[in-house]
C-alpha cells in the first residue's frame, strides 16, 4: 500500500510497544495482515513496512487502527492509534470491534454517534465487510455475561442533621432508592442519576422512530435519531446508575442503536449499518438480554441476504438460534427459522429453504393468544410469515407459490407497514412476470414505483429497479411502455 511521505522524527512510542509485546518487525507485519483478513482487507505488509513506520512514516487508511488492535490483543489493554504515535485513521475499521467491557462499548458506540451526527459523509460510504461478521457473532455466542454494568455513585440529598458537609451521601442500593428529584430540562451533567423515567422515554422514542421508518423509510428521521443518541443516550450511559437500572439502560440503547443501524441500512449506508449492528449486539450483551442479541443477529442476517451474502446470512441465523436456545416463545422460534430460510433462498438451496420455512410455520401455529412475546418480535405474524414465504419462493423461481403467498401477505398486512407492503407488491409483480402475466406485473410494478417515490428508502427504490431489470426482455411490449410512461410521470 502507498505510504505518506516520511517524517524525520522516529516513532519511539511504537518502538517501545513493539519491545513490550516482544514482536519482531516481520511478526507485527504478519499479525496486521491477518487482522486485515478478518475484516475483508487484503494487506501486504512486511518487515520493511514496519521499519518505515518506526522511522516516522504514517500508514494510510485503516492500518493505524488495525495496528492498535494487534497491540490491544497482545497486551490485554485498549490502545489507540495515537498511543502508538500514529495518525488516527478514517473510521473504516472503527465500530467492528466487539468490546471487552461495557465501558469500552460505550466509548466505541458514542464515537460512532458523534461522527455520524456531524458532516462525515465518508462514514456513510464505508463498504460492508462480510468477514467482519465472524468475530462479533462468535464473541457474542461464547462470551461470558458482564459481571457489572453499574456506573458512578448515585448521590441523593439528605437532611444535614446539623453537621456541615453531611448534606450529600451515597444512595442506598437499587431498587428502593429515594424518589428522583426534578432537574431543569437538558441539565444532564457527568454523574447525573439515570431514572426509570429516562428509560421509559428511550423506549417511547424507539417506538416513534420505528413508526416513521415503517411508513416513510429510513431516510426521513435517521439523522434526528443519531443526534438523539449522541445528546441524550451518551450522557445517560456516562451517568450514574446501579445494576438493575444499568441493564435496562443498556437494553434500551441497544434497541435504539439497532434501529439507527436499520435506518442506515435502508439508505444503503451498509458499512455504517453493519457497525451499528455490531455495537447493538455488544450493548445487548451488557443488558443481559440474550434474546434481543439474537434479534440483532437476525437483523444482520437480513442485511447479508439483501447484499447477496447467503452463506453468511445462514450462519448468522444459526448463531442466533444457538444463542437463544429452544425455550424461546414460538413466535421468536418462527422468526429465527424464517430468517434462516431467506439465506437458503438466496443460495438456491431448495430443500434447506423449504425445511426452514416448514419449521417457521409450525412454530407460529403453536403460538397462542396471551403468550409472552418480546416487543421486538410482535410484528412477526401470519402476514410477515407469508411475506417470508413469498420472498423465498421468488428467489427459488417458484413463481406460482410466490404469488400466492405475496397476495396473502398484502391481504393481511396493516397499512402502517407501508414499506413492507411495497416490497411484497414488488415480489408479487415479479412473480406475475415469471408466470407470463405481463399486464398485471406492470400494473403492480407501477403501484410500487409510486409508493417508492413517496419514501426516502434506497431499498424501496432498489426493489423497483430490480423489477425493471427483469422487464428488459419485454421492453418493446405495450404494457412495459405504459409502465415506463407512468414511472416517468412520477418524476
Molecular structure report:
Residues 1-7 and 154-187 have low confidence and may be disordered. The protein folds into 4 domains: 1-89, 434 Repressor (Amino-terminal Domain) (Orthogonal Bundle); 98-151 and 188-288, no CATH class; 290-380; 412-491. It has helices spanning 12-21, 25-38, 47-55, 63-75, 102-117, 134-142, 196-216, 222-237, 243-266, 270-287, 290-306, 310-324, 330-347, 350-365, 382-395, 399-412, 418-434, 438-453, 458-471, 478-489, and strands at residues 155-157, 168-170. The protein is globular and about 70 Å long. 62% of the residues lie in helices and 1% in strands. The protein is mainly α and 491 residues long. Residues 159-169 have a biased composition (Low complexity). Residues 170-179 have a biased composition (Pro residues). Residues 158-196 are annotated as: Disordered. This is Regulator.
Please supply descriptive tags for the structure shown above.
single chain; 491 residues; mainly alpha; 434 Repressor (Amino-terminal Domain); 4 domains; two-stranded antiparallel ribbon; 20 helices; 1% strand; Regulator
How many separate helices?
20
When the domains are counted, the total is: 4
Shape descriptor reads globular
Output the helix-strand order.
HHHHHHEEHHHHHHHHHHHHHH
Oligomer: single chain
Question: Distance between the terminal alpha carbons, to the nearest Å?
Answer: 44 Å
Average pLDDT, all residues: 88
Total DSSP E strands: 2
For the biggest sheet, the summary is: 2 strands, antiparallel
